[in-house]
Each structure stands twice: as structure tokens, then as C-alpha cells.
Amino acid sequence: MANAWFETVAEAQRRAQRRLPASVYGALIAGSEKGLSMRDNLDSFDQLGFAPHVAGNKASRGMDTTVMGQQLSMPVIISPTGVQAVHPQGELAVARAAANRGIPMGLSSFASKSVEEVAQANSSTFFQIYWSGDRDTLAQRVERARNAGAKGIIVTLDWSFSNGRDWGSPWIPEKINLKAAFKLAPEVLARPAWLWSFAKTGRLPDLSAEHGQARERRRRSSVRTSSGCRRRCPRGRTLRGCVASGTVRSWSRA
After folding, report:
1. pTM
2. How far, in Å, CA of 122 to CA of 107, rounded?
């Protein structure tokens, strides 16, 4: 691919805006609610500076460190980000890139690829879970991640229901059906390169967290969702599928 290499995150963001449909790009780039946390994070990084030292004993310098017993080439961990199915490879591509640079992969509970697949692509995978459901449900998620080869758990404590955005959240369908295809056709057809990347795989883009767990559910077809993993959320919906898939998939009407 021409110009595949890029120098900065800003350049990667510009390319993403040119390539992705407006709804997909908007979902990726926007923060929750007013976006204060996202802006504060960026401002905090802008306050950091580097003092270059050209001369000296370079052999004694290094950025490597350890986190939870894992050796890192530099103090960076890929943050858990849900539903990366905006690319056919999704979390697998990110996990391989992280492994190539010697850093861990943080895998979201809302990932579009299973923890088994991602842990195989990156031996230093940290699985992220939300503090939702009962004790047995949480234990089952942790046990599945451990059996898959995850080296650590990232627990998110500040989220219990879906947050809105002050500027409105884009409509992202869980399945690409006829209704979704008709509604999104104008913006998707304007980004043919993105659509072609999925067409080459023979599958339409699936932006649901359920997608990456389908193969694992078939393999463990004997496991069924128990009454213990049906929990009410503040908006009167029911959490479904947490035992069968090993992840929080979606809130659905009871």
C-alpha cells in the first residue's frame, strides 16, 4: 500500500478521516459526554517534555520495564478499546502490532475478536472487564481469560451503563442488514476503499461485540446463559449473554 507508513498519530487520524465513513470515524474520535476526560488526557501529555542528550553512554539507557511480571520494551500498554471491527482484522491486527514492538495488548470486554484469538496473537494480553453482574459472572470472565492465556486483568470501575455524547452519538448498527445497508449507503459508498477491505474477505463489516465471540460460542455450545447473568441496568434493560460468550455483549429489552 502506498504511503502506508506515517510519522505521527495526527497523520494517522487524518488518513482515518479520509478513509472511514462519517459515522464510524465519529464513533472512534469522540469522547463520552462532554469529552472533558479525553481533552484532559491530551493536555496532560502535552505538558510532558523530552530533554535530548546526544552525547553520552547510550548503552546504559533503555525504556524497558516490567508491568505485572511482563517485560515491556517501553512503558506503553495498548488501551482496551471496544469493537475494533472497523477493520477486518480488528483487535488481531493491533495485538500483532503491539507484540511486534514488545508491548502488551489491552483487550476490551466489548472486543470484536475473542480473547482466545487475541492472546494467541500477543502473549502479553491483559483482559479488561467491567464491574457488572454478580460474583460468579465476574469469576467466569476472569477464568476464561486466564485459560485463554491472558497475563493480567484490567478492571474498569467507572462505567455501569452506556454514556451519551453532548453532540450526539452516531448510529452504528450491530448487524449489517438491509435496513442498515440502505441507511448507511450514502456515506459508505463515499468510502469505497474501506468497503473493499471487507469485500476482499467475503464478509460485510460487523460492528457488534458479539461477532468475535461467535466461534467460541459454537465451540462451547453446551454453555447456556444462566439466570445469574441476567442483571438489570439503570435503564430497565437486561444484560444478556455474559456466560455463553464470556463478555458483556449488549443491553436488550427484557
Report:
1. 0.69
2. 11
